[in-house]
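Predict the 3D structure for this chain.
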Amino acid sequence: RRLLALNETIGQKNHELIAANGQLKVVNTDLEASIASAHAAREDAEKNARVAREMLYAADLHHASEARTRGDPRNVVQTLDRHRPGPGDPDLRGFEWYYLRRMMYRPQQTLLVAPAPQYFVCLSPDGKEVAIAGRDAVIRIAKTDTGAIIREIETHQLEVNGLAYSADGSTLASAGDDGTVRLWNLAAGTERLRIAAQPRAAFQVAFALGGRAVACCGHSDMIGLFDAQSGDRIGDLPGHAAAVEAICVTADGRGLGSVSRDGTMRFWDLDAKRCVATTESAGMRLASIDVAKRRPWMISGANDGSLHSYHTSDGLPLSSARCPDRIESLALSPDGKLLAAGDIGGTIRVWRVNQAGKFQSRALIAWHAHEREVRSLTWTADGSGLLSTGEDGRVVVSQMKPLSTVGFRDLPQLGEVSDVALVANSPWLAIAGPTGLRLWNWKTGAVEVELDQKPWCEVVAGGDRRLLTRNRDGLIAFWDVAAGEPVCEQHLVDRVASAALSADGTQLAVVRIDRPDSNSRNSIVLFEISADGRIAERFQIPLDDVCRRIGWSPDGQSIAAKLHDRIALFDAKAQQDQPSCVAVHKMPTDFAFSPSGQLLAVAGRDRSATIWTVGDESRRLSLRGHGHAVTTVAFNHAG
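Done. Predicted structure below.
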């Protein structure tokens, strides 16, 4: 009986265990479902976070690109640096990130680093030495090429705000917060003369009148002139109503420009000691100035970021532009064709300036050179380098040699323009439009020749003072640019979609629209051009697709035609119905041969460009990174 009772108890326990196991299975199932749901939720969260990062990256890239367009490299750098990956973070940066980041810096060298902010940099007359000074009141003379310090001079002027070399380079003048201007014998490193120039701080100093005088501005409204040998005051330049921030002397030392906190800029005749021109900028505090060395205009920078150029004879305004930040320093290149401006955020911008003192409304280049204010700028003697000092204590040399200094011209208002082309061996730019064809001299800025051509012509080629043009109705004309008359005119085909001239000028290819009521059929017609400009047809190449552009290989052996989904190459020496080579690309938009003719670049609407080997139809490279369709491709001269 006891065994039966025990067996019943064991059976009950087994039933309870079975029930508990069932409950555990239910719990395990619920737990697995919860874990799967948690994993799915985490994956969704990670996916959403990844998508959010990618969207933020795309938005920031767009923001950085816009900041670069408006000349704000500091904003570009700050925006891009937000996407530097941390440990374990995914790296979203692509070509576009590195491209924009690289564009924010010029090739530059840190010449030296001082222990305190440096306010002024000055180049010796021979360009071999550079002098800097700043908050620590120490003048440092260093070699321009290596940055090696030659001499240090303790000025005891509290802070040194300005420096100036004498014409022979033997004397250096310094303006300090103690109100003195001190002249230093550089050979001995000793003080030669001390001038009590200003009642409070002296801001800038300059040698004038052939080195016989020293001009100084400062915390007062008076500019003082002092004898460079004795230190005696030989004159004052009154007129400003507030502290004079900066001065600049002309190349001959007989003219001086000044800007003041009262918002005025003045130009002075130092021989007569009188003001000859005054400009007023209401509500602006002018902080910097530079005077063109051999031209009658001066440029000022203000705390609102505006740049203005004025004529020195009457103060009439010539041009203006704007920076995003307050301008702290200005410097014109030795040839006067480039203007550099440093702002409060450490950015340097460069504008092109023409002979009339007009500069572009948008900066040519901009880059982040210093962590804080750019306090002073000066160009090297040959214009290949730009020296800058800043609140970060660094002296930086930025390489400027690659910049073109040919200047710029404003195109005349010609209305709508359909095509442009430079005419080789001449100063002319051919401009075609609804009113005909005009030749604009980019050196003088004037329209010098108007050719009697029908509207909407295309400039096919220009060289050796000759132009080849074509109209929509198939009229081809060779023009003698000097005479302004056509050398030869021929009506080749009824409707022309495109035309191209070979590099040697002896062959002309024309895309003819065979069916005016449809774009489904084209053909390429090849012509031979004689020495006198006569054009004779050689043969035709029928096409089974729409063609809107053709081009010649550099050697003139092949013709490339842009079709719907490919670039087809045809032999130009013998008639053939089938292409000799095909570069397949989804909806091509443009193509270009390399200078050697061995490579063919193709752009497309799929946001990519491809490089092909001419002859064997092999794709060498695929270039991706554009956000939209690639519209144009071109090789550099080296290929």
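The chain has three helices and 48 strands.
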